[in-house]
Amino acid sequence: MMAEVLPVKTDLTTEEQVHFTWRLPNWTELGKVEHSPKFECGGSKWQIVVHPYGNNSNEHLSIYLKHGYEEGEMPDHWNTPVQFALVLWNTNDPSAYIAKDANHRFSADQDDWGFTKFRDLRRLLGYLGDRPSLLGNEEANITAYVRVIKDDTGVLWHSFYNYDSKKTTGLVGLKNLGATGYLNVILQCFYFTNAFRKVVYQLPLNDVSKKNTLLWALQRLFYSLQSDDKPVSALELTRAMGWGPRHLFMQQDVCEMIRVLQEQFEHAPEASSLETKLTDIFCGKMKSSVIVKGDEQSRLEHFLDISLNVQNISSLEESFRDYISENSNEEQAAEGVPKTKSGVTLESFPPVLHLHLKRYAYNMSQRQMVKVNDRFSYPEEFDASPYLSPDADMSEPWIYRLTGVVVHSGGMLGGRYWVFLRPTPNGAFFKLDDDRVTRAMLKNVIEGNYGGEEQTTNAYMLVYMRKSRINDILAAVTDADVPAYIKTQLAEDREAAERLRKEMEDQHYINIGLISTSSFCNHSGFDLTSSNLDHSDTSSLIPIRVRKETTIRQLGRQIGEKLQLDPERITLWICINRQNGTCRPYEPLLCPEFTAIEKACRDAGCKENKANIWVEVSPGEAGLSRPPLPQVTIGGDVLLIFIKNFDVVKQTLRGVGSIYISKGARVGPSILKAMGWSEGTRFSVHEEVKPAMILNVDPNTTFQQAELGNGDILCVQKMVKRDELPSNLKARDVTQYFDNLRNERNKQLYS
């Protein structure tokens, strides 16, 4: 009954088409979202999703088509172009229906598509008195017509979000530098003429004096297109041509630009030494003749392309006949003016034939140049022998196969170019549109660019290759065809460019190494931690990179997120490199709302956009207000002291933590409290001054008397009985422990 209601029409090849009807007998009892039973089409599962009272809107009925896969059931790389229609209709009156259709490529990222405003709810429910009401009997049917399209290009209705040309097609495009689409299509045409690419690689340009020339830039550009994974820039080539920024925004003619590049190549001294020359690939021969009063004058010349008329000519064959037809003024010649005949005779076509279609002409009525959009057909293959001189060599067939179509879209005053190219003799075409490369269907390459009335997108240049030689012209270009000096120099230049980019970028950033309580407590060497440790080491610095203008408050939030700490419990201490070679916390970073990290690092004497920061975490539970920290300032009464514990029995040294302590406090009682040892515990205290200087500290002195300051480290060791010492004792105290570390490090350095 409803099969006649199908608003979807297409001329694309389909894999499968089905329709599925979902009956909803009690509309007012439906929930906010309803899912239909699942059905299959084109090898995929589908279902209808309806929001009876709207999706994010209470004014419209919303209906969508969605995949019907359960979690984990969807095939890998599921990607399906679909044409579909959703029809809402009444069982009692099938003539009353609403139908909407759409095209969409369904994927894992875009797994549903449809109509949020399928129908105004007031009209749907009959509140406005419209007759008939589709839901007047509380019943409705929703039919989904689904047509899965067989897409040879892989990009039909593609969103191109995160599209990777190299991964999808194996090819990369060229970046548009402003208005350089015309240059990009030319370079791609030359690049995919593999015989020409090999000739370019053969040019002996390894001499330093030949660098920075157009041909040197062309070699590098071709190798980049061959080896890179991302779109390539032709900026080096344009600079070698003497172009400045303004040239990059000036539209130029494709065919004129081709001749400029060909002439540059042909006249290069290096090209004369090659066995294969430009003339062997692109040059044909023609004889121009003029007959005046029976006296014939002729001239044999080479041509790099042929310009064919398009206006009022319907096909390539007709345009060729027009090109070689004889011109005579016998009927128009005035008295006293000699009668003349002229014409051209094509003696031979080149292996690669460039045909320029004359899409621009002078309009007498408008008194200006206009674009000619007349329909002009061209075949995939044609026989060129009918257009050749009778004396031409016919020992080899003159059959030509289409391998490229340069397309122009727009008018006389502006527009854009792209190109369809066939990289292999019998392979598929690809569309190269600046930096995007996609597969193309043959009918899109040929019929889609014939032009016609009011069609401003049409073929502007055709590339044909002689079929008998096409395998040689398009022979694969491998890495072995590329001279070593091209690879080496390009790799060195890229490394230099990357270093410069990083240097420029680093001017705006500061690289910070975070010292956390965890890294300090896991550290078994000198200082709070070591910058030589691998990042996988639990005691290493934790790297973070921030912009110079980041405020201390913003930095605290970033560090809190990275270390999974409550930012309100964090106090940051900038570390300084002392003259004795140590790196210790210097002072807390105050005024967090206004002070930028760049200023804080500069004030602390940090150099080379690098700094280390001690991350102090206040005690307390996350979410609670931070307990007030002692006001630690340079020259103040309160110090930040770090404590390590040397366990002589286990022969281990580990960080314990940090304490805030008054300068006047005695060392011994403060250590007992920090370590949780009972009164009367015997222990020794040593200060880490530098690796070769571990000084004994009297526990009975005050911190001020011991000349201790912010960031100093005290190593404590509980005394044990002789029989408790291990049999393999290597260090009897922390001084000997550090001596052993230094000796071990020296052995590694000199081994």
Automatic annotation (TrEMBL):
<keyword id="KW-0833">Ubl conjugation pathway</keyword>
<dbReference type="InterPro" id="IPR002083">
    <property type="entry name" value="MATH/TRAF_dom"/>
</dbReference>
<dbReference type="InterPro" id="IPR008974">
    <property type="entry name" value="TRAF-like"/>
</dbReference>
<dbReference type="GO" id="GO:0031647">
    <property type="term" value="P:regulation of protein stability"/>
</dbReference>
<dbReference type="Pfam" id="PF22486">
    <property type="entry name" value="MATH_2"/>
</dbReference>
<dbReference type="GO" id="GO:0016579">
    <property type="term" value="P:protein deubiquitination"/>
</dbReference>
<dbReference type="InterPro" id="IPR001394">
    <property type="entry name" value="Peptidase_C19_UCH"/>
</dbReference>
<feature type="domain" description="USP">
    <location>
        <begin position="172"/>
        <end position="467"/>
    </location>
</feature>
<dbReference type="InterPro" id="IPR024729">
    <property type="entry name" value="USP7_ICP0-binding_dom"/>
</dbReference>
<dbReference type="GO" id="GO:0005829">
    <property type="term" value="C:cytosol"/>
</dbReference>
<feature type="domain" description="MATH">
    <location>
        <begin position="17"/>
        <end position="146"/>
    </location>
</feature>
<dbReference type="InterPro" id="IPR028889">
    <property type="entry name" value="USP"/>
</dbReference>
<dbReference type="InterPro" id="IPR038765">
    <property type="entry name" value="Papain-like_cys_pep_sf"/>
</dbReference>
<dbReference type="GO" id="GO:0005634">
    <property type="term" value="C:nucleus"/>
</dbReference>
<dbReference type="GO" id="GO:0004843">
    <property type="term" value="F:cysteine-type deubiquitinase activity"/>
</dbReference>
<dbReference type="InterPro" id="IPR050164">
    <property type="entry name" value="Peptidase_C19"/>
</dbReference>
<protein>
    <recommendedName>
        <fullName>Ubiquitinyl hydrolase 1</fullName>
    </recommendedName>
</protein>
<dbReference type="Pfam" id="PF00443">
    <property type="entry name" value="UCH"/>
</dbReference>
<dbReference type="Pfam" id="PF12436">
    <property type="entry name" value="USP7_ICP0_bdg"/>
</dbReference>
